[in-house]
Amino acid sequence: MTKLFRNKPAADRKSVRYEIRMTTSEAESVQNAAKIRCLSVAEYMLKASLGRRADVRFDAEIVLVIREIVQVIRQLHSQFVMQRIVPPSDLLELLLDESILAMQRISK
User: Fold this and answer.
1) Which residues, in sequence order, are CB contacts of 40 under 8 Å at separation 6+?
2) What's the rounded Cα separation, in Å, for the pair 103 and 66?
3) Is the pTM for the entire model greater than 0.85?
4) 41 is in which domain, residue-wise?
5) Does 76 map to a domain?
6) Alpha carbon distance 55, 91 (integer Å)
7) Which partner from 45, 48, 55, 97 sits 20 to 30 angstroms from 36, CA to CA?
8) Are 101 and 73 part of one and the same domain?
């Protein structure tokens, strides 16, 4: 029976680990930069440090921003309810529906 997978040669294995310190704002910037490129932080930092391309996925960035808007709309609705104010549900639902449609158009 043949093996499905072969072990990588020792020189090709990722065995070296680095630990770095950065400020909270630097960490947020790195995380955001990785997120809009659809990469993990480690993948992004490796590519950036070696001068490899890490293209920005503008469509992903736009979807993430719209998603944040949807979360803010939901928080706004919750605040209305907590303050015992009748929320303008029809307007909020319209905003949510339009946001979801926009994300779907961008994702295609």
Assistant:
1) 34
2) 7
3) no
4) 19-56
5) yes
6) 37
7) 97
8) yes
Nearest partner of 96 among 84, 85, 75, 86, judged by Cα = 75
Residues 43 and 63 in one domain: no
Question: Which residues of the chain have a pLDDT value below 50?
Answer: none
**Where do we find the tokens 């303050």?**
83
In a domain, 87, yes or no: yes
How high is the pLDDT of residue 108? 65
Closest by CA to 87, choosing from 99, 79, 98, 95, is: 79
Cα 81 to Cα 14, 41, 74, 75, 95, distances in angstroms = 52, 38, 11, 10, 18
